[in-house]
Design a protein that fits this description.
- With 289 residues, the chain is mainly α.
- 69% of the residues lie in helices and 0% in strands.
- It has ten helices and no strands.
- The termini are far apart.
Length: 289
């Protein structure tokens, strides 16, 4: 029987040497490239598609759009009434109005949630160009909101027109199809983009969502209680330029006979977004993150 030998100390494997020779500079093996807007777009797209709030919010939006569309279609087919001079496209208004709340919420969360979690510091460290970050967020969100809304409004419109064509409704023209699908999708995407910019200014999710929902609903509600004759002008303006009325114009079903017509709501929302983007950019450059 041999005598057990004491364990020999193990020699550590040689690791990589991070020290360079005296006088020599370190060269990273990772290629260094000059960043541009494409990198910011890729980063924002990765963030917006990887968070659960995006999936849930878009899911609720699609549920409201298709659910309201199906509900109104069934209600018309089950009744003895006919559409008369109206087209079946007008039935899509309710789904768009309720679904726009989801787009507003997602727009606010795209920017304001980063301030709540502190992620904005990482974002600004990776991309010090603050204007580039705001532009990338705006482009990614607007494209996503427009595509999702266009798909939903187009499918709902096709379904309603095909089902209700036997209820005396007027056949929609090409211009009416364009306004009820592309036009309304551009308007809803711009409304969501305005929410994103408001979220960048306020930096608080709950506050920005409350402000945007108030902007959508408050003018119409306030106008309903302006009974004084001296306030008739203000009441009429609130009716004409309220968000619900501007949405209804795309379905040729305006709440008033005066005010914006045709594609006017789209130009109004585009101008409001330009002003909001300028304000958000100035504040983003001046304030600390």
């Amino acid at each position: 029987m041999s005598t057990p030998q004491p364990p020999m100390p193990q020699q550590a494997a040689p690791g990589p040497s991070w020290h360079t020779a005296p006088g020599a500079s370190y060269t990273s093996p990772i290629p260094v490239v000059r960043t541009h807007l494409g990198h910011a777009l890729a980063s924002e797209w990765t963030k917006i598609r990887s968070v659960r709030s995006t999936v849930w919010t878009i899911g609720v939006f699609l549920f409201l759009m298709f659910g309201m569309g199906l509900l109104f279609t069934v209600a018309v087919t089950a009744s003895d009434s006919e559409l008369g001079d109206e087209t079946a496209l007008a039935l899509g208004f309710a789904g768009v109005l309720t679904g726009s709340i989801c787009v507003i919420t997602l727009g606010v969360l795209t920017t304001a949630s980063e301030y709540g979690t502190g992620m904005i510091r990482t974002t600004m460290t990776a991309c010090p160009g603050r204007g580039r970050v705001l532009a990338a967020k705006s482009i990614v969100f607007f494209t996503l909101a427009f595509v999702v809304t266009l798909v939903a409004t187009s499918l709902v419109a096709l379904f309603q027109v095909s089902i209700l064509e036997s209820h005396g409704g007027r056949e929609p023209t090409g211009a009416e199809w364009l306004k009820a699908t592309v036009g309304i999708s551009l308007y809803v995407a711009l409304l969501g983009l305005l929410s994103l910019l408001v979220g960048s200014v306020i930096r608080h999710s709950a506050g920005a969502i409350t402000l945007m929902i108030g902007l959508v609903l408050a003018p119409l509600v306030i106008a309903l209680f302006l009974f004084s004759d001296s306030l008739q002008g203000l009441q009429q303006s609130l009716f004409e330029y309220s968000i619900p009325n501007q949405l209804s114009i795309f379905y040729d079903n305006s709440l008033t006979r005066t005010g914006p017509k045709g594609w006017d709501p789209l130009w109004i929302m585009l101008g409001v977004n330009a002003l909001a983007f300028a304000g958000a950019y100035v504040l983003l450059e001046k304030r600390d993150v």
